[in-house]
Structure formats: C-alpha cells, structure tokens
Amino acid sequence: MLNKNTLRGWLSDLKNRGNNRSGEMSFFGHLDVLRKHLIRSALAIAMTTSWAFIYYDFVFDKIILGPKKADFLTYRMMCWISEHFHLSAAYCLKEINFKIINTEMAGQFNLQLNSSVIIGIILGFPYLLFEIWLFIKPALNLRERKAASGFVFYASLLFLLGIFFGYYIIAPYSIRFLVGFHVSEVIENQITIDSYLSSIVTLTLGTGIIFEMPIIVLILSGLGLLTPKLMRSSRRYAVVIMLIIAAVVTPTPDIQTMLIVFLPLMILYEISIMVALRVERNAMQPQKVRQI
C-alpha cells in the first residue's frame, strides 16, 4: 500500500517535471519568436534583392561599374580640387585603362545573381536590425531600453556612412592605383568580373562593418567588458592597429590615401570612448540613488 510520504514524493516529482517542461516550452517559444523575426528579415532582403535583379541594368551600369568610369563623382571631385588648389595634374584622372572580362560559362549570370543579393543585403540591413531590436527589446528593463534607444537608427546610419565612404573614397582610390600599376608595359590589365566585384564588395562592406565600432563598444560596455578608462589607456595601441588597417584596406603607397582612411577611424574611436563613458555613467546612476 502507498503511504503519505510516497504520494508526496510522486507529487513533488510530477511538479518538478512540469516546471522543467514549462522551461523547455519557454526556450522553444523564444526560438519560435526568433524564427519569425528571421523569416520577416529574409523576406525583406528577398524583396530588395528582387528589385536589384529586376533593375539590374541600372545597378550594373551606375553602381557596379561606377568606380571604373572617369566621370565618377570621386574622380570629378579630385579634378576640381586639383584645379582650385593648384595641385599636381596627377590627381585629376582623365581615363582608366583596363578591361573587364568573363572567363566562365555562367559567369555573367552569377554576377547578376551575386551582386543582386549583395545589394539586397545592404538595402535590407536596417530592417534586419529593426527585427533584431524587436526580438531583444522584451528582455530589457526600462533603463536598458532608454539607454539603447535609437539603436536601429544609429547602427543603420553608421553602416550606410561606412558603405558610402568605402564606395566613394576607398574603392576609387584603390582601383585607380591597382589598375594603373604596371610591372611591365608588355602586360595588359584584363580583370575578371569576379575579381572586380569582390574587390568592390570587400572594400565597401568592410568599411561599413568597421563603421559599426561605436555600436560594438556600446554592447561591450553594457556587458562590462570595456570601459572608457581602458580605451583611453589603450589609445596608442589602437592608433597603431588603425594605421595597419588603413594600410591594408588601401593598397596605395601614398600617405595621403592612408590618412583619408585613418582619420575617420580615429574619429570613430573617440566617439566610441564617449559612448563607453555614457554607458558607465548610466550604470552608476542607481548606485548614487542608493547612497542618497
């Protein structure tokens, strides 16, 4: 026969199993919510990708081939600066002599497909951030929500600024140097379309990601992994690292081009210090209230 202690043990075991199952349902519930956010983000990126694929004549001629043309905005600005400030005529680019070729059977189709996806990701990136924010927002308290207000706007703005900086500054300078570099006049520059596209994408997207430095600092500071004191004390090392990044990103040998890349990185680093300082001050506010 069953006694009271045995029944109580069984009831306690059933209760614990129920709690475990409810915890498992909660975990899978979060996964289900995340899945919905990712599906909506994928649909948004699919729509922007479809737009780029449909209007690919404009995308290819005006955007992808833009840095290859001598009438590109950056080259025209360089000519204007050289004329008004009486600089060397070498700054004004009149023509770019290189051919883009295709060496694969499906090369041009893959070009249209891949570049449409890349354009779609860039255009859909702000909406992707918005869905990420909707997913993490319920887990934040009121103070954390106020501290992270404007996350989508500022992260999207920094990303797009990085994209424009990489496309209009770094990519043209790099293309101008690389296609104009000759080991011998016997060698003719014929660049494959894959090489050309990968160079444009790497320089552009890479700069867009680098410009997210303040947002990364915001997250690390919120987790307590980074402090403004640490960033100030490490400024000299950060300068060396940013100079190396500028030298790698811009394969041109002149110091002016490297400084054009380095200065925005240095400005972003100083902004990141201010962001970390603000996070630290917001974290200390509850402690001050308790002391009072």
From TrEMBL:
<feature type="transmembrane region" description="Helical">
    <location>
        <begin position="148"/>
        <end position="170"/>
    </location>
</feature>
<keyword id="KW-0472">Membrane</keyword>
<comment type="subunit">
    <text>Forms a complex with TatA.</text>
</comment>
<protein>
    <recommendedName>
        <fullName>Sec-independent protein translocase protein TatC</fullName>
    </recommendedName>
</protein>
<dbReference type="InterPro" id="IPR002033">
    <property type="entry name" value="TatC"/>
</dbReference>
<keyword id="KW-1003">Cell membrane</keyword>
<feature type="transmembrane region" description="Helical">
    <location>
        <begin position="200"/>
        <end position="225"/>
    </location>
</feature>
<keyword id="KW-1133">Transmembrane helix</keyword>
<feature type="transmembrane region" description="Helical">
    <location>
        <begin position="259"/>
        <end position="279"/>
    </location>
</feature>
<keyword id="KW-0812">Transmembrane</keyword>
<feature type="transmembrane region" description="Helical">
    <location>
        <begin position="237"/>
        <end position="253"/>
    </location>
</feature>
<feature type="transmembrane region" description="Helical">
    <location>
        <begin position="117"/>
        <end position="136"/>
    </location>
</feature>
<keyword id="KW-0811">Translocation</keyword>
<keyword id="KW-0813">Transport</keyword>
<comment type="similarity">
    <text>Belongs to the TatC family.</text>
</comment>
<keyword id="KW-0653">Protein transport</keyword>
<dbReference type="Pfam" id="PF00902">
    <property type="entry name" value="TatC"/>
</dbReference>
<comment type="function">
    <text>Part of the twin-arginine translocation (Tat) system that transports large folded proteins containing a characteristic twin-arginine motif in their signal peptide across membranes.</text>
</comment>
<feature type="transmembrane region" description="Helical">
    <location>
        <begin position="38"/>
        <end position="56"/>
    </location>
</feature>
